[in-house]
Amino acid sequence: MLNPRKILLVHPLGYGAEAAGRDVSRLANLMPPLGIASLAAYLEQRGVATTLIDCFARPNSDSLIAEFLRTEQPAFIGFSCTTSSFLDGVRLARLAKTVLPGVRTVFGGPHVSALKGRILEDYEAVDFIIVGEGEATLAELVACGGEDAASVPGLLLRADGLPLYTGHRTQSLELDSLPFPAYLKLEGFPGAYKLPIFNYPRTPNTSCISSRGCPYACSYCDRSVFGRTFRYNSAEYLYEHMRHLRQHFGIRHINFYDDQFTFHRGRVEELCDRLMKAPLGMTFNCAVRAEHIDAALVKHMKRAGCWMMSLGIESGDPELLAHHRQNPDLDMLAGQIRMIKSAGVRTKGLLMIGLPGETETSIRRSMDYVFSLPIDDFNLAKFTPFPGSPLYETIHEEGTFDEDWPKMDCMHFQFVTKGMTRERLEELFRAFYEGHFRRPKVLWGYVTMLWRSPDSWLRFLSGIKGFLAFTRKTERIQEAP
Ligand code: SF4
């Protein structure tokens, strides 16, 4: 008899565990799976014993999962998957059903939320899909033992062999009512996790999420899970969350992983007031949209400990940008980046290349634009048409798209827009990075990291072979020696 009050939550790796040591992105950034940590805290509060296995932090987890299922006999196993990790999740679901017949598999995350019934039709190992926000839906599913699942809103299940959607939840969660994520259930937290190199001044550090959803509608962005509203933790809750991380785990720097940290100006101002009145000895990074910052707010944030701000630029070509996002005002964006920099906060630009309509000229314009700005760090993603993004629906009309899910991780050109070739995109991708690292000011900035973020340099030097190989061949998983 399986234990109906027990669940194992897994964060799949997405590829063979033997390659984990050669995954450049994993070496550069290892983020705690905050989604399943939040689910775990919510379920524990409701008397469900929850265990987490993060295959990113512990790549060789198959035997661990099998052993847990055999000895603990949970009634449920849940998987939180992106597009690139989904098939690995299915592999583990099959393994789970072999080891523990009768265990029910539940999948959540953006990929299954976007593709819904198509997943149930094609993957027998998936019993349930949670569409959208997971906490309440999963708790209700576990509470009914899976027997009366059709009455739980927010679920996809099979009825008479066909996918049945139980309908949207009418009420979203009040985020201040949620317990803090169950960090203690993440083995090795916080030391096992790493923020991106050169993105933090000190250790230990972590990511933290303080809002859900985004009201914008960029063509390349999938918002199947949290939708187009913006919900957020109050300043009071967020301050307590930070204090919890400081007191219990010694955290000294936080990366707020919100899409729009400053969307509600008042709460950020109040949080900064609290951090100045009763300092926690912590610094923080956040991502902002240029429309939602101003000089007074940035100075306030700097005084409260803001170390770096990331801004979505995407492209420096105004015509291309106008097709893909609202307010494509590059002059305003440039002004905001200069303002942030002059306030003493590091700036990071988030860009992508390979969008539908991209040309060699538009990529050159992006380079000229970015290299004209005081950007300290940048991230260049290879455009990937994710299920759930507005572009996905018509992407085959825009060019060639090889929908190979494990490679859809923003580090492969699976889509090639008309008039371009994959080879040329790769060359321009490399040229973009090289151009950034050749700028004397940027190089000097990285030199200053010797004393501003010494741990980053240690990590960089210990992974230098992989990083240098990435500059020659922009493959995420480097070849085995
Ligand atoms: S890319 Fe950013 S601003 Fe655009 S919809 Fe997504 S989260 Fe919102």
Could you describe the 3D structure shown?
This protein has 481 residues and is α/β, with parallel strands linked by helices. It is built from 17 helices and 17 strands. The strands form four sheets. Strands 2-1-3-4-5-6-7 form a seven-stranded mixed β-sheet, with helices on both faces. β12, α10 and β13 (306-314) form a beta-alpha-beta unit.
Termini separation (Å)?
A: 47 Å
User: Which consecutive residue ranges, at least 5 long each, have pLDDT under 50?
Assistant: none
The tally of beta strands, per DSSP, is 17
What's the helix count?
17
Sum this structure up briefly.
It is built from 17 helices and 17 strands. With 481 residues, the chain is an alpha/beta fold.
Structure characteristics:
alpha/beta; 18% strand; 481 residues; binds iron/sulfur cluster; 6-stranded parallel beta sheet; 7-stranded mixed beta sheet
Layout: helices, strands, pairs:
Blueprint: E1 3-11, H1 24-28, H2 34-45, E2 49-54, H3 62-72, E3 74-80, H4 86-99, E4 104-108, H5 110-115, H6 117-122, E5 128-130, H7 135-143, E6 155-159, E7 162-165, E8 205-208, E9 211-212, E10 231-232, H8 235-249, E11 253-256, H9 265-277, E12 283-288, H10 295-304, E13 306-314, H11 318-324, H12 330-342, E14 346-353, H13 360-371, E15 377-382, E16 399-401, E17 415-417, H14 422-437, H15 440-452, H16 454-462, H17 464-472
Parallel strand pairs: 1-2, 1-3, 3-4, 4-5, 8-11, 11-12, 12-13, 13-14, 14-15
Antiparallel strand pairs: 5-6, 6-7, 9-10, 16-17
Helix pairs in contact: 2-7, 3-4, 8-9, 9-10, 13-14, 15-16
The structure holds iron/sulfur cluster.
